[in-house]
Design brief:
- This protein is of the alpha/beta class.
- It has twelve helices and 13 strands.
Amino acid sequence: CRFVIIVKWTPLVLLLLLGLFACPCKSGPPPLAQPPLLSGQPFIIFWGIRDSSCFDRADARSFGMEPERIAVFYEDTLGNYPYFIDKSTPVNKGLPQHTRLNSHIQKLQQDLDAALPSPRYLGLGVLRWAEWLPQWSRNREKQAMYQEASRKLMKSFFPKWTPEEVEKWSKVRRFVMMESLREVKRLRPKALWGFSPYPGCNNNDPTQTALSNYTGRCPPAEAALNDELLWLWKRCSALYPLLTLDKLQVEASSHSISKNRSNEKLTKQEGNRLKHSYLVVFLLHFSPLKTDLVNTIGESAAMGTAGIVIWDKSEPKTERECQDLADFVQKVLGPYIMNITTATQLCSASLCQGRGRCVRLDPDSSAYLHLPPSSTVTGKVTENLKKRKQFKLHIFMYKMNVRIKKVSEQIALRSL
């Protein structure tokens, strides 16, 4: 699909576009949200793909993406994280029970200084540690080797395996994660730190997505497991759930998967002091389909997330891969991002004078924050004015409570 972005704004066109998002809000102060990382940008796209080896790489900045304010750390790039390459090849002794915290923290400090030299780094900090998970029941498939290795270790100390030993395993993993998070927040306090892929949802089971009545809702068991991670939500300054684009094969199911992961993420956000929330989109392929972008980026913007991290752990290695990536950014991804980030800014300006973020009034609706696809709004205004009642605002939380109250009252009065 082709997007033509309005670059030159006339007063009339700007006024009409603001009208698309103007909504008669309910009386009373609107909900609060954390201010955006970058002022004036309620929805930010971060470019996390390592493409420095490409000679003719895509210019993410020209489409409004942020390539310099995202740092993703893996199992082998921050501290002495324990994991297994395979059953017979442990790294840092393989299990968190073996972790020597002092050595781990010392190595973490060195790695962080090398990756982010400035103590005033202002950006995202994502700990992508996924070899083992902090909850016993979520270690499935390959991760089951950690259960087996832990049982062997614990049986060397205890003749019988009991629930207490299971709990001890969970506490050890929790301790490694908490202390690591505490240290990176201390060393780079302005960054937004969190673990990915949390909160989890596990709503992309192929046996379920193929069903005609598939809803995409997170299974109750997964939602309950997320509730048990309160200790993690309290300590993270941002939430980074993961969505793998390659798995979204059917338009209807991809919309449901993304929507419900956003719902689960925002549930944890609202219950834990208004965390920043970003959806990490893992690009296993460069999809030419607009529907994939709408169902991931567009859905997250409409649900009120702070932004998107576009990420791929592997780096393009061949000239063809570099060219495919550049074409994808220039022809598909970039124009769509310009469209939606501009729309979120206009909606913020219209509903709350730039002091808040627009959020879909009905989470189950199909309302999106999109500009008209043409370069003018002639003939489009009447149709798009239907959006006037489809969005509400979440006002940004300021440091001084007096200012929060004052701004909230002003906006509440405007909506009467």
